[in-house]
């Protein structure tokens, strides 16, 4: 199908900001299961310093401003044609070796609760075990907006038994690595049933399975990503794939507003 996406991020500062440097991961790339038809990334209140691909293959726009600034507005919009590949994005590419995706991060370090979780995982194949893991997380951790933040670890979310898609993804990644599967975090967009407007982007996990390559699993919804999903960035955890990250000098506070809309432009013709 063809998905139309509009993503607006706006920062309003309590006092004029003197300097900021922000790393934007807001440009999807064509690849397995998705073709970018058109895409625009515009920034008001800052200028683009450089664009590059990082070590994970994410397209980065580095933007900055100097001099007093009251706000920054970032608008990413475009259309992406998607196809259902049962979550399979295929062979590993990029600068990072597969073994790197076995490495823990502070947000995904497996602890006692993660190890208890994987003891209940079963399946006759690697794919079956990952489906079992996804289902266990979906059943154990309630989707509850506001119950966590960007610094919540996978163990903390398991202890609270609540979180958002970011937490579900971190738990999945932590458990998969503890089971010796290379795993990575994916940020992107999801077409939701019955609504166009959303409060944030989406997140899920991918594991590398011999014979298949990278395969996606979304514990928040208990499904493998299909043609409702658009991938933007990947990394070891949220910090590597956050839509916007950076630093600011000159003001202690800000008001952040994020609006996301994802809507279908109709089914596309199947490819032979």
TrEMBL record:
Boundaries of every Transglutaminase-like domain copy: 157-221
InterPro entries (alphabetical): Bac_transglu_N (IPR013589), Papain-like_cys_pep_sf (IPR038765), Transglutaminase-like (IPR002931)
Alphabetical list of SMART domains matching this protein: TGc
Highest taxon above the source species: Bacteria
PANTHER family reported for this sequence: BLR5614 PROTEIN-RELATED, SLL1049 PROTEIN
Protein name listed in UniProt: Transglutaminase
Species this protein is from: Rhizobium tubonense
